[in-house]
Write a structure and sequence with these properties.
mainly alpha, 80% helix
Length: 522
């Protein structure tokens, strides 16, 4: 603020607070998104545990079948205009309004498509309940399309605190509704009502906190420019959908809704890190990297740090889930979900790898090479679809194993192509990840050995086995971090200590103290 001239009585000596740097805004946004996303993940895990004891696998299968259809159309929901908005150098009310009306029209059209095909879908999948389920999901689909522009504008402004609070409000409300309906015997409808509530509350909250205001402006030139960027991205999303969801369609069509219920639950648990950690990193990194898209070294450093942070959390989480799959399913989901444990042995390691791969789209988008992303996705999706078809003859385990094998075979080119755009070597990438990878593998080995000892002793207590294995694994992993702190932890402490946010600085001090590492106090 401005003070009075020196020759007048001074009432203040305050100096205007400098605007936060890009690094500080990224760290602050990442802290908010990560904290609330972890809270959402725990809430989701709790709700899945409660619902799984009251909702049969067949009901999950019916909803999963409907989601196969809505997820496909969701790839076309905004035709990449949201990412185009975030990447815009100069924003105006005309561009915002054009994107809003374009997205609303696309969303309404696709919602009508869902309504029109609901009957045919019920016949194709031999599931009469699909008609009513798809009709309700069409409403949620339209609401998501309406809220895409406010979401994009918050991400562009790096207002991650507001975005995280909106998403948290929707998650808490929707979970509460789903649990209440399930307790009252709603079964299938608990899943539908919960999902619709999440979408409705989140969309309403986005409009309350977003700077966007609706007006009647629509400029075809702006629409064409956004679509020229977004169409390739949407094409990539379409093929990515097939690579991730055609397995659900095939399982539903040929193995039935019960098998799909098991398969979808295993896949859901596998994608927790992909939906949470990777989505947080993508939302925070994309606007940051778009601002320094010409600086290769900054992009490499930001990407490597983000990947190392994902590995630090996801590697031990997913490998631990793999070795404790049996008692975990028994305790959290119940005995009726036992087949899911075998799926997790396959899906959990895949989830750790895909959590890393989920961030490469940020490289394509920040470099303006969505066309290259589309071409690679076209090729890889064909390979994934063939893996589903081949594995189908051995049931859901065969589908999971076949897909996992093909995914790991294509992993090297999947990373090498985007890395080439920013001149990042695979060797450097692996060196960054190795410290947390070997610690996670050793932790998983220790936990698996403990469970084997309990089995040899004839101790059959799933809750006790799970609790003790998790405790021993956590102590082993943290001990390995304490003995020799990985670079990612040291860099995280240094970055947090450089911010002006007092809470992040306190977190830095706490981490430094716990690891017996001294840092300068400004």
């Amino acid at each position: 603020m401005h003070c009075l001239p020196s020759y007048l009585p001074q009432r203040c000596k305050q100096v205007a607070k400098p605007d936060p740097t890009l690094t500080e805004r990224t760290l602050s946004g990442g802290a908010w998104m990560t904290g609330l996303q972890l809270a959402r993940q725990l809430l989701q895990l709790l709700s899945v545990s409660i619902l799984a004891h009251r909702v049969p696998p067949a009901a999950y299968g019916v909803v999963a079948t409907a989601v196969v259809i809505t997820n496909f159309l969701d790839t076309l929901r905004d035709l990449g205009t949201s990412e185009a908005l975030i990447r815009e150098r100069e924003m105006s009310a005309e561009i915002e309004s054009t994107a809003f009306w374009l997205n609303t029209a696309i969303g309404a059209t696709l919602a009508l498509v869902i309504l029109s095909i609901s009957g045919r879908a019920a016949v194709f999948f031999h599931e009469p309940q699909l008609v009513l389920v798809l009709q309700f999901l069409a409403l949620g689909f339209f609401l998501n399309a309406v809220g895409s522009v406010p979401t994009a504008l918050l991400i562009r402004a790096m207002a991650f605190r507001k975005l995280a609070l909106c998403q948290a409000a929707g998650a808490i409300t929707g979970t509460a509704v789903a649990v209440v309906v399930a307790i009252e015997g709603g079964k299938l409808w608990s899943l539908i009502c919960g999902g619709l509530t999440i979408t409705l509350v989140t969309t309403a909250a986005l409009f309350l906190v977003s700077p966007f205001s609706i007006n009647a402006t629509f400029r075809p030139a702006h629409a064409r420019r956004m679509l020229s960027f977004g169409l390739y991205l949407s094409g990539s999303h379409v093929f990515n959908y097939f690579s991730r969801n055609l397995d659900n369609l095939l399982v539903a069509r040929f193995l039935g809704s019960v098998s799909l219920g098991y398969y979808q639950m295993g896949y859901l648990l596998m994608t927790y890190p992909l939906q949470n950690m990777s989505s947080v990193i993508n939302q925070v990194m994309y606007p940051s990297l778009s601002r320094v898209s010409d600086n290769r070294e900054k992009i490499q450093l930001a990407y490597l740090r983000s990947s190392a942070l994902i590995g630090l959390i996801c590697f031990p989480l997913m490998l631990g889930l793999a070795v404790t799959a049996g008692p975990f399913i028994h305790v959290f989901l119940g005995s009726q979900w036992t087949p899911v444990a075998r799926l997790l042995l396959v899906f959990a390691p895949l989830g750790a790898a895909q959590a890393l791969y989920g961030t490469v789209s940020v490289i394509y988008q920040s470099q303006g090479r969505t066309d290259l992303q589309f071409k690679w996705m076209l090729f890889s999706s064909v390979a994934y679809v063939l893996s589903f078809v081949v594995g189908l003859r051995w049931g859901i385990i065969g589908v999971a194993c076949s897909y996992t094998l093909v995914w790991f075979l294509l992993m090297i080119p999947s990373f090498w192509i985007p890395f080439h755009l920013i001149e990042l070597s695979g060797q450097r990438f692996f060196r960054v990840l190795w410290p947390t990878l070997w610690r996670s593998l050793l932790m998983a080995t220790i936990s698996a050995s403990w469970l084997l000892i309990l089995k040899q002793l004839g101790i059959d207590n799933p809750a006790g086995a799970l609790a003790s294995a998790v405790l021993i694994g956590a102590l082993a992993y943290l001990s390995l971090l304490f003995l020799r702190t990985p670079t990612v932890v040291s860099e995280l402490i240094d970055l947090l200590s450089e911010t002006t946010n007092p809470y992040l600085r306190k977190l830095s001090t706490l981490l430094s103290w716990s690891l017996n590492r001294s840092i300068p106090v400004p």
